[in-house]
Amino acid sequence: MSANTLDMTAERPATGTQPVQTGKIVLAPPAMQAARERPEPATPETSAFMAERVCVWFGQRQVLHDITMSISQKTVTAIIGPSGCGKSTFLRSLNRMHELVPGARLQGTIRLFGENIYGAGIDPAMIRRRVGMVFQKSNPFPTMTIAENVTVGLRLNGVRDRDELEERTKRALQMAALWDEVSDRLHRPATSLSGGQQQRLCIARAIAMEPEVILMDEPASALDPIATQKIEDLLQILKNNYTIVIVTHNMQQAARTSDYTAFMYMGRLMEYGPTATIFQNPRLPETLDYVTGRFG
Q1: Domain ranges of the chain
Q2: Listed residue (236, 218, 248) closest to 28, CA to CA
Q3: Tell me: the pLDDT tens digits for 28-60?
Q4: Cα dist. 27→19, 39, 191, 264, 271 in Å?
Q5: In the CATH scheme, what is the homologous superfamily, with its name and number, of domain 47-291?
Q6: Per-residue DSSP letter, 192
Q7: Which of 144, 196, 199, 237 has the highest Cβ tally under 10 A?
Q8: Torsion-angle region of residue 249: left (phi > 0), alpha (psi -120 to 50) or beta?
Q9: Phi-psi category of 108—alpha, beta or left, where left has phi over 0 and alpha has psi -120 to 50?
């Protein structure tokens, strides 16, 4: 089986109420994880993304090598691997944000719900509306209020109706689990929020545009454990409506939150499959070494 082939052969772990220990990683208790142990493999009909032989260069330097993988709709897919292995580059290639770097070039195909996002005549701005992005460091606009941060994208795209803006602001903040905390101070500066609240505000800003997919590049890396837990809990709510792809260096976070995990190393996809498989029974020794903390 090639490194790019989805391995769906994971055995179901023993049942019980205690977390499953695998090396240094504690998976969710089996009762909580049961729905994630044998997720169905993506097909052209059920995939959000299908990447085929994707290679990316920045100038003369090749960063990604022949990445092939399918990402299922309405799941959380975690991308793990050591620093510099190409995780963020691949994530950004999913909505063409890597093209903002001078000298970027992509070879291969990425299909979003069947449509080649690199096809002739495809507008990158439209792809970025369909595929929202949340960055590692929360980036609310400091001169805007909480409400204005949520609606800035809508206003830039011509939405002017006050009732619609208010409705979509409330809905986005509710889906980002932030409404109850800020509903009485929507006109205060966004910078008045805590770090964790600011990150959820950025998630609300992405949701307000009604994307089909949300990409997250280490969204909790700068947050304290309580704020991190809120983000992780939010992922499980959001995947009912969105496909989520998250880059993380936190192995515990990947094990707790994702349905699928992809392990990347030196620009290549080494192993990809259900999260329970990757953390409990990986095929490759490199994967086992990484998820158990022996390197990286």
Answers
A1: 47-291
A2: 236
A3: 444 334 444 455 666 767 899 999 999 999 999
A4: 6, 16, 35, 20, 18
A5: P-loop containing nucleotide triphosphate hydrolases (3.40.50.300)
A6: G
A7: 199
A8: alpha
A9: left
